């Protein structure tokens, strides 16, 4: 990396001397130092060297309305002056949290009219685990404790959330998963479908849920948790048969369904929630990321009315966070929802920009390095392979990371999940910015292929 700005090196030194980074290779980070991002506007970031970078990941899937929205800044400033902090414990409340709860309920599926706020998606999923077990205990079924998650699902990085997630590399550290959590196969046809056709594989993957319920025993299962579309796992869009089959199975058994909407929620599919897109009927939905467009941390759990009725009768719920429903975060959330609605951003995604992004992205399928391009709404994935026909991968060459580095150096952020390149740009990305994203992506695929042919 070039170093024109002397401050870059100073910041990189601070990183090595004082900072422990989330999800980073510590050895590599110590040697190379981080890229320093200093400012942002619209869909663009600038690093400390002055390079402009198109943010194909909306930060970490969260900056839905784009960077530099003055309304969100003003909402935070106003709320900080009025009431910078108070809590929601012990029978107190404040207007921003209550008004945001109503605003979220207004866009949530019918029959889901209550929200428990948290500081993050991970805290939301830890809340889910405690809430569903509390619910079943109140229903006189305290044995229903087991949560069924999926291999390669991502639900966050706290102990319960990481346990419900199925990331093997996370479970390897710190003795996870905790007891009472089991996992079934993921509906990842490209990677794991073998000789099955996608639709056949979708049915097979869904049937693993029923198998697991029968194995654990319906009386012991509290809930099934899943992302409508796996994000961190590699933008895994299930075969068309998967969700309908899962719905049939859920109908047969008395277990709760938790949709982790942290990525899909608030417009990423063109609908308010991924559950709306797929016609799912969740009992609980975890939210975060797009709720505040990432301008300030906030998450939560939207809960179906039948569950609320039961826990209302149960007296104390002994759970909460100092920053549950933080007034400044709630004010930003409200302003963010207002922008999404007033600027008709979902409508535009659905009818214009998502179809255009998906059309342009699929043009990359002809590239010799590309085994599949898939996507939906403002989500996309590009599978890098050695052999297009057999889906054979390059082994041991870290092709995804090579491609990611070329992207960075050429002014584009695409994330690598193994050898799957993924994108999730801000929902406000324009057609010409989509053109720029796709042409940069193609250039970086070329550079990656050249490097492989070295
Ligand atoms: C990011 C993410 C989480 C965790 O949210 P944090 O705010 O990072 O704790 C949970 N679920 C999904 C699907 C996510 O993508």
Termini distance? 20 Å
Structural class: alpha/beta
CA-based shape: globular
Main β-sheet, spatial strand arrangement: 4-10-9-8-7-5-6
Largest sheet composition: 7 strands, mixed
Question: What can you tell me about this protein's structure?
Answer:
- It holds the Pfam family Aminotran_3.
- This is Aspartate aminotransferase family protein.
- The chain has 454 residues and is an alpha/beta fold.
- The chain is 43% helix and 15% strand.
- The protein has 17 helices and 15 strands.
- The strands form 3 sheets. A 7-stranded mixed beta sheet has the order 4-10-9-8-7-5-6, with helices on both faces. It has a 4-stranded mixed beta sheet with strand order 1-2-3-13.
- The radius of gyration is 22 Å and the shape is globular.
- The two termini are 20 Å apart.
- Pyridoxal-5'-phosphate binds at residues 120-122, 125, 154-156, 227, 231-232, 260, 262-263, 288, 299.
Brief summary of the model shown:
By secondary structure, the protein is α/β, with parallel strands linked by helices. The protein is 43% helix and 15% strand.
